[in-house]
């Protein structure tokens, strides 16, 4: 019997365990930390053995195959031993794809920024067209859990570089690569090229029948494609130039031209989501819909009715003429660049948290141009002060959300925007970016 060991009992690990069990594998789950009660119940109900707080080396190293949580770095003692023993390691998306590839189509979306928005928007297009599509991956239910419990005809999957690092045969019918900017470099030996190659793994098994949709305006993507061509049918999108095929802007209109069919054309001003970055996201999602023969009327309708995600440029409230926007999902500098770039009014910026070796140079110009004051929210705010104090006269330190929101409100005048866009991970003060965003919204509503 195939022995499958799952390392890590988070959302993806539990999904992999349920799917492995359904496939008739002998499944064992091992987590070096405590497992959440909810997940423990799920394992118990499904009679899946597990351990927490430690790893049983003999069981793990005796596996036929290991599904590794995307959060476990290769540097750990555990992974070094696994690699030495030569046990096959795959990611949860590999397992899910293997068990669903014959009965469904997969649209996989990656990029340093905009993945969640584009994934949700693509799902909205497929649902609007009446298709049986599931929204899975980093954004909600794990891909494996969906395959195990409620299979769909189409899987719209948000994938991270960490998940792509452990694929073997994973081959999406449509792959979208939105952009590549420095992020998580600590996991890639601080080498940008390693991170770039990790992102491009999304297309490594694709053939001519598959589509690779990419941003031709991104210099890192362009450079990599020039050096290492890929085998799928490529469809670019751009806001800088007009293209023969793909997505582009002309005369304030969004154009999507795929496979010599009649183009989808709609006014930029009819798009539900505003800002330059959302033009890219809308084009990528629209092209994905067209590759799967969704009618152009449905694509236009979807792109004009999509509502934005929680914690991603989410409008919270207006208090005495000051707008509050929750962009807690902005966990890197580039996300903050996109947020500031779309701002039309003066900004009080709340930022800070666990700094992943951020280079704040990218946002200095926008900070000078659009930000009135910065409220730092974190245990250690020094990196932000060192990087931006020359560009910003007013900088305030806080170490809890209540103070951050009230300080920002005091610094704002009528017509300003208070923007929570942290540029950092949240685990110094919060469990995750969702908790940080909800805390922000609670404090705003209490003003």
UniProtKB/TrEMBL annotation:
EC number, as in UniProt: 6.3.2.9
Entry-linked Gene3D superfamilies: Mur ligase, C-terminal domain (3.90.190.20), Mur-like, catalytic domain (3.40.1190.10), NAD(P)-binding Rossmann-like Domain (3.40.50.720)
Domain Mur ligase central intervals: 109-288
Coiled coil (UniProt feature): none
UniProt catalytic activity: UDP-N-acetyl-alpha-D-muramoyl-L-alanine + D-glutamate + ATP = UDP-N-acetyl-alpha-D-muramoyl-L-alanyl-D-glutamate + ADP + phosphate + H(+)
Transmembrane residue ranges: none
InterPro entries: Mur-like_cat_sf (IPR036565), Mur_ligase_C (IPR004101), Mur_ligase_C_dom_sf (IPR036615), Mur_ligase_cen (IPR013221), MurD (IPR005762)
Main location: cytoplasm
Keywords of the record: ATP-binding, Cell cycle, Cell division, Cell shape, Cell wall biogenesis/degradation, Cytoplasm, Ligase, Nucleotide-binding, Peptidoglycan synthesis
UniProt cross-references to SUPFAM superfamilies, sorted A to Z: MurCD N-terminal domain (SSF51984), MurD-like peptide ligases, catalytic domain (SSF53623), MurD-like peptide ligases, peptide-binding domain (SSF53244)
Domain Mur ligase C-terminal: 311-424
Keyword Ligase: yes
Highest taxon above the source species: Bacteria
Pathway linked to the protein: Cell wall biogenesis; peptidoglycan biosynthesis
Pfam families reported for this sequence: Mur_ligase_C (PF02875), Mur_ligase_M (PF08245), MurD-like_N (PF21799)
One MF annotation (Gene Ontology) recorded for this entry: UDP-N-acetylmuramoylalanine-D-glutamate ligase activity
Enzyme class: ligase
Subcellular location: Cytoplasm
Residues reported to bind ATP: 111-117
HAMAP family named in the record: MurD (MF_00639)
Family: Belongs to the MurCDEF family.
Purpose: Cell wall formation. Catalyzes the addition of glutamate to the nucleotide precursor UDP-N-acetylmuramoyl-L-alanine (UMA).
Name of the protein: UDP-N-acetylmuramoylalanine--D-glutamate ligase
Organism of this sequence: Chitinophaga pollutisoli
Source taxonomy: Bacteria, Pseudomonadati, Bacteroidota, Chitinophagia, Chitinophagales
Gene name linked to the record: murD
